[in-house]
């Protein structure tokens, strides 16, 4: 008899399992993939970041280094070796999680987990064998999968999701991204750096929905400068395979005449949906909302006693670090502790170059809510470290309450924005004011000085701009 069985070994699931074990519970984690880490580690966050890093270095070697007086001749792409390096990173990290399970005495059960009833989980192995495990509590952490699009049939070869985009055997001549969100843009950047022409087809009239509009517009401008083409306010109605690749039928989002776009590879990236099929939810009586997400209360409990859910299968942003926080909090609540997650302080990052990072509310959010605010902005062009390393595109924007000066949101587009945002997240967790950051000493020269200056700009007193 287990105290907790976690179904799903991704960032939320494996972290929940380890934290529960640390708290003295007897824990098992059921994972169907055959390797731990979920989508994020196996076919998502980690391999994409390795390819983003490698492709950036390749691009720099082709021309960027020359600006610094470093001559590199005969640069060529060894795509199989690049893919092998990506696989080695993934394998090493998945083995690392297995080690952490052994260290914390978490039982790793390979197979497809299914709820038979509260307290009972059936596990079907790869060989078809089935076993039933008994437990006091169940945590569902099965993550998400790529959203399908009618008329666009994925084969993971010429029409791919993010999974197939990570394993292409050769660089596409023309890659079309259906969807201008985070996943599509990141993979588009990888293949563009390696030589592909990239066209973004987006249903909305903007890219990266949810990101501060000013930042999104700046990102589109910079990507266009890099060579991206954009077809906004456009929908894809059909994808037909041809001898040359794929023929896409396009229409204006508002309706109108059909257009045709030819390419050799399509990446379908219109979002993700909870992966809850075959979990036995209906049979167990577990309620889901209108979007197929598992309904939970403030303690991550479903409507069935002893069954919990975290991560991508419940409401909220589908982010690995959000799932991790929920995994820890869920385990601690089971142990009688009282953790708290401030969802307004969950950061988001787009790992393009420059990067986008944000936390809290956007200007659009504040205007919609009718909240009075002040904005402070500072360009990286005026930051000495950014100029020294040749990465001076973008800016930092700090939004603060007009009366109290409490920081309501921070938005960054620039080099290493994903690292810089951590300071803003910590500040918001402690309900800091813009003045708190403005009066905090920042080492010189660093990129983070741009955040200090943006905070100073809220009061109209930036020094270097």
Layout of secondary structure:
Elements: E1 2-7, H1 11-22, E2 27-31, H2 38-43, H3 45-64, H4 79-103, E3 107-110, E4 112-117, E5 120-124, E6 130-140, E7 144-146, E8 159-160, H5 162-165, E9 174-178, H6 182-193, E10 197-201, H7 213-226, E11 229-231, E12 234-241, E13 246-252, E14 259-263, E15 265-268, E16 272-274, H8 281-284, E17 307-309, H9 320-334, E18 348-350, E19 355-360, H10 363-369, E20 373-379, H11 384-388, E21 395-401, E22 407-414, H12 417-429, H13 434-438, H14 449-458
Parallel strand pairs: 1-2, 1-6, 2-3, 6-17, 8-15, 9-10, 9-15, 10-11
Antiparallel strand pairs: 4-5, 5-6, 7-16, 12-13, 13-14, 18-19, 19-22, 20-21, 21-22
Helix pairs in contact: 1-9, 3-4, 3-6
CATH architectural grouping of the largest domain: 3-Layer(bba) Sandwich
Number of domains: 3
The count of DSSP E runs of length 2 or more, i.e. the number of strands, is: 22
What gross morphology would you assign? Answer: globular
What do we call the CATH homologous superfamily of the largest domain?
Answer: FAD/NAD(P)-binding domain
Structural class given helices, strands, pairing? Answer: alpha/beta
Through-space gap between termini: 64 Å
Q: What's the level 1 CATH class of the largest domain?
A: Alpha Beta
Tell me the fraction of residues in β-strands, as a range. Answer: 15-25%
Described by strand count, sense and barrel closure, the largest sheet is:
7 strands, mixed
């Amino acid at each position: 008899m287990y105290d907790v069985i976690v179904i799903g070994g991704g960032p939320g699931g494996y972290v929940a399992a380890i934290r529960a074990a640390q708290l003295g519970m007897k824990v098992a984690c059921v994972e169907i993939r055959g390797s731990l880490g979920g989508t994020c580690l196996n076919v998502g966050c980690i391999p994409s970041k390795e390819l983003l890093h490698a492709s950036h270095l390749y691009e720099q070697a082709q021309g960027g280094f020359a600006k610094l007086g470093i001559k590199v001749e005969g640069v060529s792409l060894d795509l199989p070796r690049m893919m092998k390096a990506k696989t080695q990173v993934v394998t090493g990290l998945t083995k690392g999680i297995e080690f952490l399970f052994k260290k914390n005495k978490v039982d790793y059960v390979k197979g497809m987990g299914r709820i038979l009833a509260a307290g009972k989980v059936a596990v079907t192995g790869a060989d078809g064998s089935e076993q039933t495990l008994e437990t006091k509590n169940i945590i569902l952490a099965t993550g998400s999968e790529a959203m399908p699009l009618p008329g666009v049939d994925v084969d993971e070869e010429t029409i791919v999701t993010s999974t197939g985009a990570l394993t292409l055997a050769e660089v596409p001549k023309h890659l079309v991204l259906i969807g201008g969100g985070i996943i599509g843009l990141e993979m588009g950047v990888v293949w563009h750096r390696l030589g592909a022409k990239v066209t973004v087809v987006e249903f909305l009239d903007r890219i990266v929905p949810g990101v501060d509009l000013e930042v999104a517009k700046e990102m589109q401008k910079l990507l266009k400068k890099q060579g991206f083409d954009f077809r906004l306010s456009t929908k894809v109605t059909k994808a037909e395979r041809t001898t040359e690749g794929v023929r896409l039928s396009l229409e204006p989002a508002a309706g109108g005449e059909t257009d045709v776009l030819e390419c050799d590879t399509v990446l379908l990236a219109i979002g993700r949906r909870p992966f809850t099929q075959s979990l036995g939810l209906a049979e167990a009586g577990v309620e889901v909302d209108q979007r197929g997400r598992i309904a939970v209360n403030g303690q991550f409990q479903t409507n069935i006693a002893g069954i919990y859910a975290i991560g991508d299968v419940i409401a909220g942003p589908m982010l690995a670090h959000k799932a991790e926080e929920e995994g820890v909090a869920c385990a601690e609540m089971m142990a009688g502790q009282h953790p708290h997650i401030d969802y307004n302080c969950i950061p988001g990052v787009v790992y393009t170059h420059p990067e986008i990072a944000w936390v809290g509310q956007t200007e659009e959010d504040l205007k919609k809510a009718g909240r009075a605010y002040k904005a402070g902005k500072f360009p990286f062009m005026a930051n000495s470290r950014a100029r020294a390393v040749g990465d001076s595109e973008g800016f930092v924007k700090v939004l603060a309450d007009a009366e109290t000066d409490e920081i309501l949101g921070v938005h960054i587009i620039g080099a290493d924005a994903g690292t810089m945002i951590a300071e803003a997240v910590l500040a918001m967790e402690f309900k800091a004011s813009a003045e708190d950051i403005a009066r905090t000493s920042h080492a010189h020269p660093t990129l983070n000085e741009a955040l200090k200056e943006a905070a100073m700009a809220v009061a109209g007193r930036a020094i270097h701009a």
